[in-house]
Amino acid sequence: MTSSYFQGYEGFVRFNATGGAAATLTAVKSWTIRVTKEILESTRAGDTYVRTAGGIISGSGSADLIYDGGNNSFIEAVNSPGDAGLALFELYLSSTKKIVFNGIIQEATYGTSPDDAQVISCNYVTNGIITLDL
Length: 134
What we know:
The protein has one helix at 72-75; strands at 12-16, 23-24, 28-41, 52-66, 87-92, 98-109, 119-133. The protein is mainly beta. The protein has one domain: Roll (Pnp Oxidase, Chain A), CATH 2.30.110. Strands 2-1-5-6-7-4-3 form a seven-stranded antiparallel sheet. Strand 1 and strand 2 form a beta hairpin. The radius of gyration is 18 Å and the shape is globular. The mean pLDDT is 93.
């Protein structure tokens, strides 16, 4: 049996701040997402073992972008009051494997270093359904 491994350089991010058709972001250095399911305890009196059930699912993550002037809709999305969470995120592991959700840019860190390219880090949270097309 042969295995095929995906490499980090195959990944990319597509984004649209208003939820329309997503465009590929340039100069994405890395991205992450953590999908979490709340656990509900349903143990009853007299049970010997704990019973649990899956509850509400949420997600959060981050993306680091090398600033090149072409990612402004993404790195400026944190500065939009009254955000309804309709921004479309498409996080690709490869050209066919992706994670899709609507969400909100929760935090952006801007900075500079004389020894490196300018990297802007953005944190986001999901809003609604998370589609894992893996």
